[in-house]
């Protein structure tokens, strides 16, 4: 529901980064003391190919192309569309940000117009106590919409929302410069991944 609200609510977003692949904007989060980031871009591939690259499945291609995902595991499959997942991330930002782990409940949804949504928010799970060598971070409602473009079967609008408390004791300035650069990298690497998938 929150993803739908973010998607429909155009107000208050401030642009902070623009590349040929993505336009990134932000506004203060209503969920925690940080920001929610919005990425929007058009990818040169069908919604099916884009979804293939980003869908939240164990052993999926995302760990290969997404530099911010080191490992992704499904802890518990609750239903066909809901699972509890653990994601680990490598150190980032010239090692200023140490490896993180996130435990989320993930929902996959398909809309009547063909749009696919992968949405997540943080969760606790008895099989996922905090691990040594990782800082536990928290994702607040976040996700990606793969939106078909009418009449353009080989192009897809990807609208994504990132809302993450990285945890630990990071200076706010580091967090504020990390996310826009990270989202730009996400779109750039995903564009390469969908092109490789088509090749």
Automatic annotation (TrEMBL):
Gene this protein is translated from: Stard5_1
Function recorded in the entry: May be involved in the intracellular transport of sterols or other lipids. May bind cholesterol or other sterols.
Taxonomy of the source species: Eukaryota, Metazoa, Chordata, Craniata, Vertebrata
Molecular functions per Gene Ontology: cholesterol binding; cholesterol transfer activity
Protein name from the UniProt record: StAR-related lipid transfer protein 5
Keyword list, A-Z: Lipid transport, Lipid-binding, Transport
Limits of the START domain: 1-199
Domain of life: Eukaryota
One GO BP annotation of this record: cholesterol import
Database matches in SUPFAM superfamilies: Bet v1-like (SSF55961)
Alphabetized Pfam families for the sequence: START
């Amino acid at each position: 529901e929150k993803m739908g609200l973010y998607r429909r609510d155009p107000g208050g977003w401030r642009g902070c980064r623009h590349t040929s692949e993505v336009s990134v904007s932000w506004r203060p989060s209503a969920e925690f003391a940080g920001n929610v980031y919005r990425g929007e871009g058009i990818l040169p591939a069908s919604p099916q190919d884009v979804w293939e690259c980003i869908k939240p499945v164990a052993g999926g291609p995302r760990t290969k192309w997404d530099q911010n995902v080191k490992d992704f595991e499904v802890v518990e499959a609750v239903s066909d569309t809901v699972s509890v997942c653990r994601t680990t991330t490598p150190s980032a930002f010239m090692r200023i940000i140490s490896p993180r782990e996130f435990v989320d409940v993930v929902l996959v949804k398909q809309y009547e117009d063909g749009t696919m949504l992968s949405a997540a928010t943080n969760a606790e799970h008895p099989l996922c106590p905090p691990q040594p060598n990782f800082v536990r971070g928290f994702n607040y409602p976040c996700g990606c919409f793969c939106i078909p473009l009418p009449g353009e079967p080989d192009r897809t609008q990807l609208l994504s929302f990132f809302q993450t408390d990285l945890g630990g004791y990071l200076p706010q300035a580091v967090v504020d410069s990390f996310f826009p650069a990270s989202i730009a990298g996400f779109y750039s690497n995903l564009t390469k991944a969908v092109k490789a998938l088509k090749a």
